[in-house]
């Protein structure tokens, strides 16, 4: 059974992705991922599209909420 995918917007951080999801680039190439992974939102990761924690060093701030 496939686990429903979830993308969680982390305060001042990454997008945490869990569940059954496939990550592909614009040309259709598939990234190798784990069951859970984090995507960069700050734009400064040296491992894009994945988060490497740089947001903590540069003071990235965003606390998005559903309105």
Automatic annotation (TrEMBL):
Organism of derivation: Virgibacillus byunsanensis
Keyword Cytoplasm appears in the UniProt entry: no
Q: For the Iron-binding zinc finger CDGSH type domain, which residue ranges apply?
A: 22-61
For this entry, the protein name equals: CDGSH iron-sulfur domain-containing protein
Q: Which InterPro entries match?
A: FeS-contain_CDGSH-typ (IPR018967), MitoNEET_CISD (IPR042216)
Keywords (alphabetical) are: 2Fe-2S, Iron, Iron-sulfur, Metal-binding
SMART domains from the UniProt entry: ZnF_CDGSH (SM00704)
Pfam families hit by this protein: zf-CDGSH
